[in-house]
Amino acid sequence: MVVRCFAVSIAVTLFGALSSRAQSARPVELSPGHGRVVLLLAQLADQARLSDDLSFAVEAQSQAATLLWPHDREKARSIFRRAFSSLRPDRDPETGPSGAAASANITAAERRRLRAELLNRIAARDSELAEELARLLIYTTEQAATEAASRDDMERRELLLSVAQQVVEREPHRAMTLGQLSLSLGISPELGRLLTHMRAVDPQLADLLFSAAVTRLEKCLAIELSELHTLGSYLVTSMNSAGRVNAPAHLIAKFLNLAYNRIMYRTVGTPEAASEKGQDESAAAYFIGKQLTDLFARFLPERLPQLQRRVSELSGAGSFDAEVDLSYAQPSLPSDTAREARLATDDRERDALYARAALGWLARGEVLDAQSAASKISDAATRDRVLAQIARRQTSEGRLDDAVAVAHRIENDTARVGVLVKLAGAALASGDRARAAELLNEAEKEALGAAPHLARARALLTIAASFSSFDVLRAFEVMQSVVKAINGISPAREASEDNLASAAASRATPKLGELYHLDFESTLSALARADFDRALILAQQLTIKEASLIAQLAVCRGAISGTPPDAQSSVDVGGGVRH
């Protein structure tokens, strides 16, 4: 019923306050070549929807809709709405993308994260659609009477406020509406931030939202101290340079009376107050009382003496103003740390101390001492991380040859390749293309010699990205190696009867989350601006469906931002993933 009451008041506000869609501007006109890309994006979104991995399906559809937005907003809205619908709390877990139990393969926390990211992405483009989808969450809460939804309520509340923050500058009335909706689910710490931003845009709307929050507190059977802190912090930060609060005096007085009653509620010295929870509440009440003292002096002076006595009682009971002695936290010198390492008997502790000493010397510019300490680290992974830091420091100082020598001491193939690529970038930045190409060629050779693994594909991607900035042909060649590397770690196409072999194949198979974060943006996007068709063919050669979809989205992003591809190209964009 609380939700329904809020919905009625909000509808009245919306009737006269909502602005027209800021996004109603005409879409960007397309060239024939860009039209091909838009068609491909719509097809990729449809293919992503069929994935059995709901997280991947939502993120890929969101990317496609974002790219479509400037060119076909109705289609983009449809994709956004469809993706969000798959994440609704009332979604049947047995039905989802491709008719499989795709909803069951993610945790509740992951579902909340996806909803938040998607709703914020939508809000940045279409606040009306974002509000519509946010309302669906609220009404779902009202209908699901049997659901123990405290965590879900908090998530929905934060989603509403997150969208409000996105739109407050361009549509403050809509932001206020979303803020009011959030109040039906409690007062969030984020409400104070929204109120502060709204006051800078429209003070009257900020006052209305603050009034709604105070009204909610009045109707609560038990007021949380955290809610008082949120609204009190807003009032304190809204003071102008003259020390005056801009909110109406009657609203401030109403809030202060509520705060006074809550702070005075608990008696100091009772068993309840002595409990751990009671001590926490006493500490919170003490700090809120201190926070509001100036406001009481101006707007409710008759209650100031009682408030000050209560604050003193709370202070005496808890010693909340005690100073902390930080003298023990003084950092030690690298030489002292190295001495501790020599005396350590535990291998792990000794390595950690030598690593700390090496980084300490590096911070002081004593690179030789840092290298000496790093050489004493027995664990290869720890030693590699320290050597990589040393190489980066030498590169920043212009000592490229010394950095290359340190890079060659790194044992792990992937880590060594990563450092060589960074050194190539430094050479390129200094104008030495020949040295950059030499280092990248060495890095490619190292990567190709590594065992089949997603890390090898990721390393080759960084090499291709570096080449793409000055040698597109070599970048395409390395990207072909990337495709082979990813396909080489795909699930075995023939089922093995050997359980050990099957387990090994399963371990080698990359997770979709890992595939989704492969950096195709700095490679295929850049290459698509040079040759869309060739980049698209490479993306379609990936045998893992999801990897191919991600790669094709990157190609589309590059094509849309660059010169449009030839409309008469022989490449079939309707095929999606090629097998």
Q: Indicate the radius of gyration in whole angstroms.
A: 30 Å
In total, how many beta strands? Answer: 0
**Which of globular, elongated, flat, extended, rod-shaped describes the shape?**
flat
Mean pLDDT: 81
Distance between the termini: 55 Å
Q: Helix and strand string, N-terminal first? A: HHHHHHHHHHHHHHHHHHHHHHHHHHHHH
**Quick one: biggest sheet?**
none
What's the helical proportion of residues? Answer: 55-70%
How many alpha or pi helices?
29
Low-confidence stretches: 1-25, 92-101, 141-149, 324-329, 492-508, 567-579
Structural class call reads mainly alpha
Strand content: under 5%
Task: Explain how this protein is built.
The chain has 579 residues and is mainly alpha-helical. Among the domains are: 221-320, no CATH class; 457-579, no CATH class. It has 29 helices and no strands. It has helices spanning 2-17, 32-49, 54-68, 73-85, 108-123, 127-143, 150-167, 172-183, 190-201, 203-219, 225-237, 249-263, 271-274, 276-299, 304-318, 334-343, 347-363, 367-375, 380-396, 400-407, 413-429, 433-448, 454-468, 472-488, 499-508, 512-516, 524-530, 532-540, 545-561. The relative contact order is 0.07. Residues 1-25, 92-101, 141-149, 324-329, 492-508 and 567-579 have low confidence and may be disordered.
